[in-house]
C-alpha cells in the first residue's frame, strides 16, 4: 500500500549477481546506498521486506558495498528502533567491526551514534572491543586512530566512571603516545574529557589515580616528547589545580 509491489521487486532484484554482470557492475552499491531511504519509506513495520536484501548486501564480496552499509547503519538503526536494531543490525555491525579498514571506518565514524541507540547491557559489551580500533591493517593510517579519539570523547557519556577507568583510560593513554602529532593532540583532549567525567560524577579517587598515572607516565618520562605531552595536557585541560597537587 506504500509503494507499488513491482517497484519494490525491481529494487530487491538489484542484489542478483546476474544484474551486476548485465546491467551495472556497481548496481549492488547503488542498492546499498538507497536502502536507508527505502527502509524509511516502508517503515519499520515492513522491515521484513528488506531484511534478506540487507543481509545479502552486508556479505557482498565487494568491500565498497559493505562500506556503504557501514556508513549508514546508524541511520538505519534510528529508523528501525531498538528492538529490530538489537535483533537484526547488531550482528551485521559486529561483522563490520572485523572487516577491512575501509569498512571499519564507516562504523567508527558513527560509533557514538550507533552505541547510544543500544540498551545499556548490550552497549557495555562493546567496551571489550573498542581496543581493537587502535590496531589497523595499515599502521600509517593515522586518521583512523584520530577518528577513534574523537568518537571516544563523545562515547564517554554512555558509560559510568568505573567502566571509563577500566577500559577507555588505557586506550587514551595509548593514543597519547602515538607517533603522529595530530593523533596525540586530539588524545590530550580525550584525557581531559575523561578527567571531566570523573569529577562531574564525583569519582574523585579515580580522577586522582588517573592524574597520578599521567604524572608517572608523562611528567617524569625520560623522553622529551613525553614531558611535552604532559605540558599539552595541562594546557588543554581546565584542571590545573589538580596537577598542582603533584607538581
Automatic annotation (TrEMBL):
UniProtKB keywords: Repeat
Lineage top rank: taxon: Eukaryota
GO molecular function: protein phosphatase regulator activity
GO cellular component terms attached to this protein's record: cytoplasm
InterPro entries reported in the protein's UniProt record: ARM-like (IPR011989), ARM-type_fold (IPR016024), PP2A_Regulatory_Subunit_A (IPR051023)
PANTHER family: SERINE/THREONINE-PROTEIN PHOSPHATASE PP2A 65 KDA REGULATORY SUBUNIT (PTHR10648), WW-BINDING DOMAIN-CONTAINING PROTEIN-RELATED (PTHR10648:SF7)
Record's protein name: PP4R1 phosphatase
Species of provenance: Grantiella picta
Lineage start: Eukaryota, Metazoa, Chordata, Craniata, Vertebrata
Amino acid at each position: 500500500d506504500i509503494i507499488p509491489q513491482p517497484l519494490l521487486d525491481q529494487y530487491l532484484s538489484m542484489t542478483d549477481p546476474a544484474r551486476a554482470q548485465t546491467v551495472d557492475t556497481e548496481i549492488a552499491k547503488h542498492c546499498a546506498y538507497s536502502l536507508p531511504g527505502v527502509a524509511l519509506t516502508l517503515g519499520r513495520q515492513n522491515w521484513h521486506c528488506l531484511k534478506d536484501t540487507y543481509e545479502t548486501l552486508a556479505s557482498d564480496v565487494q568491500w565498497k558495498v559493505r562500506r556503504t552499509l557501514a556508513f549508514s547503519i546508524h541511520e538505519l538503526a534510528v529508523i528501525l528502533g531498538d528492538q529490530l536494531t538489537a535483533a537484526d543490525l547488531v550482528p551485521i555491525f559486529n561483522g563490520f567491526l572485523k572487516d577491512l579498514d575501509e569498512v571499519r571506518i564507516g562504523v567508527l565514524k558513527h560509533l557514538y551514534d550507533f552505541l547510544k541507540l543500544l540498551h545499556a547491557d548490550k552497549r557495555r559489551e562493546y567496551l571489550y572491543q573498542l581496543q581493537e580500533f587502535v590496531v589497523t591493517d595499515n599502521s600509517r593510517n593515522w586518521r583512523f586512530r584520530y577518528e577513534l579519539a574523537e568518537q571516544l570523547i563523545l562515547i564517554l557519556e554512555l558509560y559510568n566512571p568505573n567502566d571509563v577507568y577500566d577500559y577507555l583510560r588505557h586506550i587514551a593513554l595509548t593514543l597519547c603516545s602515538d607517533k603522529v602529532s595530530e593523533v596525540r593532540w586530539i588524545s590530550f583532549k580525550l584525557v581531559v574529557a575523561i578527567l571531566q567525567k570523573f569529577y562531574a560524577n564525583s569519582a574523585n579517587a579515580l580522577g586522582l589515580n588517573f592524574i597520578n598515572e599521567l604524572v608517572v607516565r608523562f611528567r617524569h618520562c625520560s623522553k622529551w616528547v613525553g614531558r611535552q605531552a604532559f605540558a599539552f595536557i595541562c594546557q588543554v585541560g581546565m584542571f590545573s589545580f589538580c596537577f598542582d597537587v603533584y607538581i
